[in-house]
Amino acid sequence: MSGVHTVDSDIDVDLGTLVSSIADNWLRILLTALAVAALALAVAWMLPPKYKAETRILIETRESIYTRPDGARDDERPILDQEGVASQVELITSADLLKQVAAKLDLASRAEFDESVGMSAVGRLLVLTGLKNDPGEIPAEERVLKTLRKKLTVAHVDNSRVIVIEFSSNDRRLAAAVPRAIAEAYVNLQRDAKLQSNSDATEWLEQEIDDLRARVREAEAKVASFRAESDIFVGEDDAPLATQQLAELSTELSRVRASRSSAQAKAIAVERALENGASIDSIPDVLDSQLIQRLRERQVELKADIADLSTTLLGNHPRIKALRSQLADLDGQIAAEARKLLRSLKTEAETARIRERELVADVNKLKAESARAGEEQVELRALEREAAAQRELLESYLTRYREAAARRDRNYLPADARVFQEATVPAEPYFPKFIPIGVSAFAATVLVMVLSLLMRELFSGRAMRRREVAYVPTRAVEMPALRAAAQQAEPANEPSVSEPVARLEPGEPVAQAEDAAADKVSVQMVADRLIAEGATRAILVSPEGDEAAASAVLIAREIADSGLRVLLMDLTANGVAARPMLNGAMLPGITNLLASEAQFTDVIHSDLYSECDVIPSGTANPARAMRAIERLPIIMNSLTTAYDIVIVECGPADVEGVRRLVAPGSEVLISALEPSNKAVREAADALRAGGYDDLLLVSPVGHEPPHSPVGDRTAA
User: What is the rounded distance in angstroms from the CA atom of residue 475 to the CA atom of residue 479?
Assistant: First the structure.
């Protein structure tokens, strides 16, 4: 099945030769690197030193609280964002600003900025011969500006409003003077721009104020004219007089109506009392009459006198008759007074009714007058609002004009930028740096020399050597179609590949099958047959117990060696099949999957000794897992889809347990250490009785493949 072969065409890189070649040439590499480093230092020494200085500008609002316009606050002023700061960077590098700085510092007179200044004889000769462009063809201002841009770096610091102006020059004083001059020119440019904007605003405000004054006068004149023409009289709270009178008359009308209603009610009550002969003492107006009260008091006195005299005198006595006559006169007087009161109440009610009619007429007249006054008042208010708006606008413009004029006259407008770090004269040049240059030249030379030496050794072939490679050839997977073609091509008297496998024919005793092919029953032959027939499942029953379960492990590893994707599922009670593949580790398995305690990725593990994957029996409660045993066919279908073949070790399972696992493309096998064992015969008979006539017999005895651990793997 496997063997050791040599391949003469395999070559390998001889690292020892490469290292020895470097060791042999180390002195030459070192001397060359030192020479190059010395040359680099000499060139750096000849180069003119360059100095660098920088100025930092902060963009911020610099308006003082005492000079800030009325009503303005710092938080209301716009602050530049990142795009605004970038725009200020472009403003600093603008040609106009740089030209001002160049003219102020007289950079055109320096040979560093203008090649035509102090040009050597060699340079003039090159220009005359055409080997070099004549710098005089370009205007001096453009030449200076071009050189200035090359030496200038302007950038803003990320996440801030700080702008850094950096300049390099051969002159240390000039390196500090240029950033200072640029920063000063930038601040002055901002201040001048604000002054110009303020002056333009002042001139515009002057014209607007003159126009507004004329419009204010015109609006106020319209208000006065309309008020005079409409004859609108204004009372308290700026309300029209007609409206106020209407409110007063409405109040008086309500009072008169209430008085009339009260007088009518009282008159009706008194009249009904007189007509019915009822007592009028309960009527409030009768009780309020002083004359009736005195008459009632006299009546009470007479009744008291009559009562006193009745105790000593008879009813026909003249004195009693006189008192009774007086009492009757008092009753008549009280009734007469009540009728007078009734007439008074009726007169009062009629007077109130007449007054009510007059007030209603006056209210109707004032309603029409108030409606007319309201319409005119609306138009008057519109004119007044227009005049007030023009007046307020004029006052605001006057305030702004006075502020702008004061700033213009006093020339006070601070720029929204300040220099918080001025450039100082640098003490040391930033270029050349001798130590970094020397170290870099030395390291680069050593690297180039070593690489060139290694490439030379490799291309020359001296660093190459032949090697012998030992490998185990992979068994080719024989597909069913190719297998059939091979059988047709074989002579009739030669046995096929599948013949050495001991197959239990229906009705054949197990002992006879063992005697017929005892030397041919092997794990290798069963694995070859499963591959050739394209089986998708192999169900192994081990009636003898744990030791016979080794056949499933061996078959799975043999098939995995052929390059197929193989999974071994351990359905034994004690997990004896998967435990050797996992070095005895107790890991989640099929019981955890059935009990919904894990997923496929949690229960599929890798065999430590082959490319096979394994699902152990698991760590979940078996009773709980058996309650979900109906899910096992679904799990098997999923695994069959993912793997080329699934091998299931069932242990001493019965026919019903095997039937739950069998599907199209399945092979049922019996793993036996001794085929003549009674348990093996009974299991075979039970399977044949259950409909599984085509049984394969396999034995793990005598099969010892040279497997070795392959390290940690992950299941696909």
Answer: 12
Judge contact between 526 and 696, C-beta under 8 A: yes
> Which position has the higher pLDDT, 667 or 17?
667
CA atoms of 29 and 17, how far apart (whole Å): 17
Chain CA centroid to CA 624, Å = 45
HEC secondary structure over 227-293: HHHHCCCECHHHCEHHHHHHHHHHHHHHHHHHHHHHHHHHHHHHHHHHHHCCCCCCCHHHHHCHHHH
Say if residues 1 and 476 touch (Cβ distance below 8 Å): no
Q: Is the pTM of this model over 0.85?
A: no
- Rounded to whole angstroms, how far apart are CA atoms 77 and 74? 5
Cβ–Cβ under 8 Å, residues 566 and 560: yes
- With CA atoms as reference, report the closest residue to 659 among 627, 697, 687: 687
48, 503 Cβ separation under 8 angstroms: no
Between CA 603 and CA 605 the distance in angstroms is 6
Q: How far apart are CA 484 and CA 663, in angstroms?
A: 23
Q: What is the pLDDT of residue 153?
A: 93
Mean pLDDT score, 538-545:
87
Does the pLDDT of residue 166 top 50, yes or no?
Answer: yes
Residue 152, helix vs strand vs coil: strand
Q: Which residue has the tokens 């000039």?
A: 174
CA distance 716 to 700: 28
Reported as a pLDDT band with limits 50, 70 and 90, residue 136 is low
* CA 22 – CA 447 distance, rounded (Å): 12
pLDDT higher than threshold 90 for residue 623:
no
- Residue range 207-262, pLDDT digits in tens: 888 888 888 888 888 888 887 777 665 555 556 666 777 777 788 888 888 887 87
Please tell me the chain's helix, strand, coil percentages from 3-state DSSP, rounded to the nearest 5: 60, 10, 30
User: What Rg do the C-alpha atoms of the chain give, in angstroms?
Assistant: 62
* Chain mean pLDDT for the chain: 77
Asked if 108 and 140 touch (Cβ cutoff 8 Å), the reply is yes
pLDDT in tens, 470-501: 333 333 333 332 233 333 333 333 333 333 34
Q: How many Å separate Cα 108 from the centre of its chain?
A: 56
Collapsed DSSP state (helix, strand, coil) of residue 72:
coil
| 278-309 exposure pattern, b = at least 16 Cβ within 10 A, e = fewer | eebeebebbeebeebeebbebbeebeeebeee
Report the run of H or E that residue 614 belongs to, with start and end.
strand 613-615
Angle value at C-alpha 475, between 469 and 481, nearest 5 degrees: 145
CA distance 430 to 437: 12
Task: Please check the confidence at residue 615 and state whether its pLDDT lies above 90.
Answer: yes
Query: Rounded distance, CA 59 to CA 183, Å?
Result: 12
Token digits for 194?
A: 């604000």
Do β-strands 605-606 and 613-615 pair in parallel, antiparallel, or remain unpaired?
Answer: antiparallel
